[in-house]
Design goal:
Helix content is 41%, strand content 24%. The chain has 167 residues and is an alpha+beta fold. A 5-stranded antiparallel sheet has the order 1-5-4-3-2.
Length: 167
């Protein structure tokens, strides 16, 4: 009985460890490729605990990494180089969903999603002129679909007072 329990716990922990691989892989890739470190954000652990307990907007967990001064690297700003870095992420359990580039501002946004079930993981990475933000969130599919169907409701829930869709 103990052997079975131990094997079940090991399989569950291996699955949980593998589920976060893409976020960690991307963060390490940015740090290594651009020679930078992510910023330390005070009380991030407390914020994550709040999300795990309260489930705001159907969210049950998140990770966040913010990078600054990326333009100090000679490679930063090369769109093909950034695409190759992000394409490596699409080989895991997350699949590319959206890729948007602004030629005018040099900004890029990548959205990856996991397999749909009761909940799914989404990884969103934005790259601006000097900084990048990577967030991974686990969301309830029903809440996500409701938010997509009615973005004005989501805007009001997050305190947006002058949304672009009312202009």
């Amino acid at each position: 009985m103990r052997v079975r329990l131990l094997s079940v716990l090991l399989v569950a922990s291996a699955a949980a460890w593998g589920a976060d691989r893409e976020f960690d892989q991307l963060v390490k890739g940015i740090e290594t490729h651009y020679g930078t470190s992510r910023m330390h954000i005070p009380l991030m652990g407390a914020a994550n605990l709040f999300v795990k307990v309260a489930h705001p907007a159907g969210t049950s967990g998140f990770k966040l990494a913010v990078f600054q001064n990326l333009d100090s690297s000679a490679e930063y700003g090369n769109q093909a180089d950034l695409d190759r870095l992000m394409d490596r992420l699409g080989t895991g359990s997350l699949h590319p969903l959206i890729r948007v580039r602004s030629r005018r501002d040099g900004e890029s946004t990548y959205i990856f999603t996991g397999d749909a079930g009761k909940s799914t993981r989404m990884l969103i990475a934005t790259f601006q002129r000097r900084e990048a933000t990577v967030v991974e969130v686990t969301v309830n599919m029903d809440t996500l679909m409701e938010t997509i169907a009615h973005p004005e409701t989501a805007g009001k829930a997050f305190g947006v007072t002058d949304p672009w869709w009312d202009r």
